[in-house]
Design a protein that fits this description.
The chain has an 8-stranded mixed beta sheet with strand order 4-3-7-8-1-2-6-5, with no helix packed on it. An 8-stranded parallel β-barrel has the order 19-20-21-22-23-24-25-26, surrounded by 5 helices. Strands 27, 28, 29, 30, 31, 32 and 33 form a 7-stranded antiparallel beta sheet that branches. It has 15 helices and 33 strands. Helix content is 20%, strand content 25%. The protein folds into 4 domains: 3-83, Immunoglobulin-like; 94-175, Immunoglobulin-like; 216-281 and 305-333 and 395-403 and 415-615, TIM Barrel, CATH 3.20.20.80; 623-704, Immunoglobulin-like (Sandwich). The protein is of the alpha+beta class. α6 runs parallel beside α7 and α11 (542-558) packs parallel to α14. The radius of gyration is 29 Å and the shape is elongated.
Length: 707
């Protein structure tokens, strides 16, 4: 590029000129034009040698407006377009350029209207191609208020492919539509979609019972991983998770049948909206979890049986969720609103340069995500994009909740507005996410991080303290133990975590309600629970390690809050000690049905724990109920008794023994065991005693009947 001019603040322009284009390397006379009318003479105050170019700094005093078109004319009559996209970083821009009308391709059989937010563009076109035609038509768009361009094209455009084309600051571009409801394989172009074709497919929500947060449980899966290691047809796809009756050679259930057998209430799926790093046309060539978003409205193509079909991936994702609903399971979508895969090639930045991305005070990109960019969720149109795409996922694909990746990078106002908007229409909606305090250019008090949990009662947070208190560290700290796998000195930390992190128990409460605490010890990221136990309990026998996994899983189920499990955690799934396996392939990440079949006793244990939790009145939302009903007692040998007392004398006692000692414990009243290391005790067993033999590495629940 010979010339490039960019407004870097309201009173300064950077002008880049290729060496040799101006006599003596400098130009004493430059003129600023506003829509081809000269308005100012500009004079450089400094020049810097930048290799092939000189970079000139030009002071300027002018009331710039993004609705206009600016250029600089040099002494040789070269016309240099001025990029004024920096204006999008100012508060007055966000107040003026906020638009609440339609966006994207709005379809009807008679006509389709295209709306796109491109506030810095001086010209915009739609290039489109009808189904079955090779020729591309190009239609200019009209600039409306608030930086939006619009055009209406007559005729039935159902399934037509299209791109936007325009000019920003003298640079010509083409782009897909950030509000695309459909995309071609590998996101090359957008499709016009008739919503009725999607919305007419059943979602089976009538099969869902009203949500009770005290009985909620989450099981995390990846669409591809659930079937990638099987020999079934269409493995690794949405379609594979819609099929019932699938079994391995030895009769073990595959996919949906396995998920519904567990007894969880919610299935959380790793990102299913369009991401970058898998070739849609050859998906098994590479592997990725999908935390590299491209588009927030269209499903990922690599999980579809026909990624180039405008509708196939939409139908298949909706049908997958409908299959969950049919079997009483709710769907939670894992969404990534903290960054995009590549800012420079993303449609958001092509159409509105800089606007959607958070900046540091010096104008550089904020990088709290450590992925090169952070979305600026506080900007009105970015906040709107987040809210619109969440609602689209609910209405088009039946999402029942959302897990927010690196949620601490999203401002809390956006999160609250998005939740409240959906909650009005979908009362069983759930929001939760990673509330880590990341180093983004956002004031701490505005972050949706767990340190602000007391002011965000409707948002759930992955409880890292529960994980650390229960099993200890991860990654570089994998050698540190928690209360349940070797460090009995962490019993007080464990009590606080087990009570939902809502009590003042030597630590400040993290949350207002226990439903904010997502209790987990394993997720897709970092080492599996089995691999952690292998590392810190290496001298234990295989059977002891299985007991310890069962103990930890049971504590996760019965702790106050919402239990969360990663696929395979229930039967000792392994990633061979690796942690961040986001691109490590199917062998490490895929669901191991052979191992699951070998450890069906462990699966049964978790299933029965989840079943019992739904039946017992020992889960609470409010801290007042915990104060009233729950008490903790250290009973020696490093063991813990948690008692739930009720006014009529009825009580439940949980005995947690992470030690390798077996001992006896005497109750003051008669109790009967209803759950132990084998799972639920059959209902016909009605033996009461005051003496309990507490096995090593065990979890036990005893029932004390009414007075």
């Amino acid at each position: 590029m010979d010339f490039y001019a960019k407004l870097i603040s309201k009173d300064a322009i950077q002008l880049w000129v290729k060496k040799g284009l101006w006599p003596n390397g400098k130009d004493p006379y430059l003129r600023l034009y506003d829509r081809y009318k000269p308005v100012l003479t500009l004079k450089p105050i400094s020049v810097a040698d930048q290799g092939d170019h000189y970079m000139y700094m030009l002071p300027v005093q002018y009331d710039f407006n993004v609705d206009s078109d600016y250029s600089i004319l040099d002494i040789l009559n070269n016309v240099i377009k001025l990029d004024v996209s920096v204006l999008g970083d100012y508060d007055d821009f966000d107040k003026k350029y906020r638009y609440d009308g339609p966006l994207g391709a709005v379809y009807s059989k008679e006509e389709t209207s295209f709306y796109v937010f491109a506030p810095f563009a001086t010209t915009m076109f739609v290039h489109y191609k009808l189904v079955g035609q090779d020729s591309v038509s190009s239609v200019p768009m009209e600039r409306m208020e608030c930086g939006v361009y619009k055009v209406t094209i007559k005729g039935d455009l159902d399934g037509a492919s299209y791109l936007y084309a325009g000019c920003n600051g003298g640079k010509f571009f083409t782009s897909t539509d950030p509000y695309s409801f459909g995309l071609s394989s590998n996101s090359r172009y957008s499709f016009v979609i008739n919503p009725e074709k999607v919305l007419s497919r059943p979602l089976n929500k009538e099969n869902l019972s009203p949500l009770d947060l005290t009985k909620m449980s989450v099981y995390e899966v990846d669409v591809r991983d659930m079937t990638s290691l099987t020999d079934i047809q269409n493995k690794g796809t949405y379609l594979a998770l819609t099929k019932e009756g699938l079994k391995t050679e030895d009769g073990f259930p595959i996919g949906l049948d396995y998920l519904k057998s567990l007894g969880v209430t919610h299935i959380q799926v790793l990102p299913v909206l369009d991401f970058q790093t898998i070739d849609d046309d050859d998906p098994f060539k590479t592997y990725n979890w999908g935390y590299d978003p491209v588009n927030y409205f269209t499903p990922e193509g690599s999980y579809s049986t026909e990624p180039n079909d405008p509708y196939k991936r939409l139908f298949e994702l909706r049908d997958m969720v409908a299959g969950f609903h049919k079997n009483g399971l709710r769907a939670v979508f894992d969404v990534v609103y903290n960054h995009v895969f590549n800012k420079n090639t993303n449609s958001l930045d092509i159409l509105a340069p800089g606007y959607y991305f958070r900046k540091n005070k010096d104008g550089s990109l904020s990088n709290g995500s450590f992925c090169g960019n952070d979305l600026e969720s506080r900007h009105y149109m970015c906040r709107r994009l987040i809210k619109d795409s969440l609602r689209h996922a609910v209405e088009f694909f039946g999402a029942d909740g959302f897990r927010f990746d690196l949620m601490g990078l999203i401002d809390s106002t956006t999160m609250k507005e998005a939740y409240e908007s959906l909650k009005k229409d979908y009362p069983d909606m759930v929001f939760y996410g990673e509330g880590w305090d990341m180093p983004t250019a956002l004031p701490y008090q505005e972050k949706t991080c767990d340190g602000n949990g007391l002011s965000l009662p409707d948002i759930g947070f992955f409880n890292g303290f529960f994980r650390e208190a229960s099993k200890g560290g991860i990654g570089d700290s994998i050698g540190s133990c928690g209360y349940l796998d070797g460090d009995l000195g962490k019993i007080e930390d464990f009590k606080y975590a087990f009570a939902g992190s809502v009590m003042d128990m030597g630590r400040r409460p993290m949350f207002v309600k226990t439903s904010q605490s997502i209790n987990f010890v394993e997720c897709h990221d970092n080492e599996t629970l089995f691999d952690k136990i292998e590392y810190v309990c290496k001298n234990e026998l295989p059977d002891e390690k299985k007991k310890r996994i069962n103990l930890i899983n049971a504590c996760t189920v019965f702790a106050q809050g919402i239990p969360f499990f990663h696929m395979g955690q229930e039967f000792g799934g392994t990633k061979r000690g690796y942690g961040n396996t986001y691109n490590a392939g199917d062998e490490l990440n895929g669901f191991n049905y052979d191992l699951a079949s070998q450890n069906q006793d462990m699966i049964k244990f978790l299933r029965e724990a989840l079943e019992l939790k739904k039946q017992l009145p020992i889960s609470f939302l409010e801290r007042e109920d915990i104060v009233k009903h729950i008490c903790f007692e250290n009973i020696g040998h490093g063991a813990l008794k948690v008692t739930y007392n009720f006014d009529d004398g009825e009580a439940y006692h949980i005995i947690i023994n992470p030690s390798k000692e077996t001992f006896s414990y005497n109750f003051s009243k008669y109790v009967k065991i209803i759950f132990n290391g084998k799972g639920k005790i059959p209902s016909g067993c009605d033996f009461y005693s005051q003496l309990l033999i507490v096995p090593a590495i065990s979890f036990n629940i005893c029932y004390q009947r009414k007075d």
